[in-house]
Amino acid sequence: MKTILITGGTSGIGAACASYFVQQGYRVYITGRDLQRLNAVAADVGAQPMLCDAADGNQITDMARQLKQDNIRLDALVLNAGVFYPAPAISDSADNIDLTLKTNFVGPLQTIQALMPLMKNPSSIVYVSSIAVVKAAASCAVYSASKAAFEAAARVMNLELSDAGVRINSVRPGITRTEIQRKAGMTDAAIAQLNESLAGIPLGRMLTPEEIVPSIALLVNDSSLGMRSAAIEIDGGFAL
Predict the structure, then answer these.
(1) Are residues 128 and 82 in contact, defined by beta-carbon separation less than 8 angstroms?
(2) Residue 34 within any structural domain of the chain
């Protein structure tokens, strides 16, 4: 049985991934910050819960220690946990900048550091990036930078980790209907307006988490053995 760990697995793309890989016969571990919600989602999809805040290095270390104690080896790691706090670059707060970078860049990097001894040869790491890396949008400067920073680091890590058989690739979702909009402070009316604003792109609407999963699955399975630092854009034509 193959084993996969998905960070930020309690909602959105992470939860959709967890459900998919359980159905594919994987042993699935998911992480989250809210223990009650983590346990509920894990029980619902048939995954194993691991309490871990992606912005907390100590919790990442504790998670790795627990997995090692349980003799877990990973075939794949999906780095999905992320935050989005929209704000103009020149007026964004230091706290928002710090938390965004910790969660979207530093945390995933520390997760790889902590879990490398548990990664099989070969194994796959998939980073959930964003179309914002290549498509500029107002109030997204820090978010875009945090995602681009990890993609840049992954290029170097693909060289450094090649002997260990670990490959790192990314998916770049477009605007996807998840809880990230609510967490960014958007109301139902604002989310509906955002969806309507996409009528002019080829897809004509926001994406769903389930529409991102097949590309992640491709990068997880052995058919992607030849891919390194690839970035699959699933944006419904938003960046055209």
Answers:
(1) yes
(2) yes
Residue 134 domain-assigned?
Answer: yes
Contact present, 31 and 37 (Cβ < 8 Å)? no
239 lies in some domain:
no
Q: Give the model confidence (pLDDT) of 1-44 as tens digits.
A: 999 999 999 999 999 999 999 999 999 999 999 999 999 999 99
Predicted local distance difference test score (pLDDT) of residue 185: 82
The reply to whether 107 falls in a domain is: yes
Domain of 220, in residue numbers: 3-234
What CATH number does the domain containing 167 carry? 3.40.50.720
Amino acid identity, position 176: T
- The pLDDT score that the predictor gives to residue 154 is 98
Query: Is 124 in a helix, a strand, or coil?
Result: strand
CA distance 140 to 147: 11
Query: Are 144 and 232 within 8 A, CB to CB?
Result: no
Cα distance between residue 231 and residue 168, in whole Å: 10
> Does the model's pTM come out above 0.90?
yes
Q: How many domains does the chain have?
A: 1
Q: How confident is the model at residue 180 (pLDDT cuts 50, 70, 90)?
A: confident
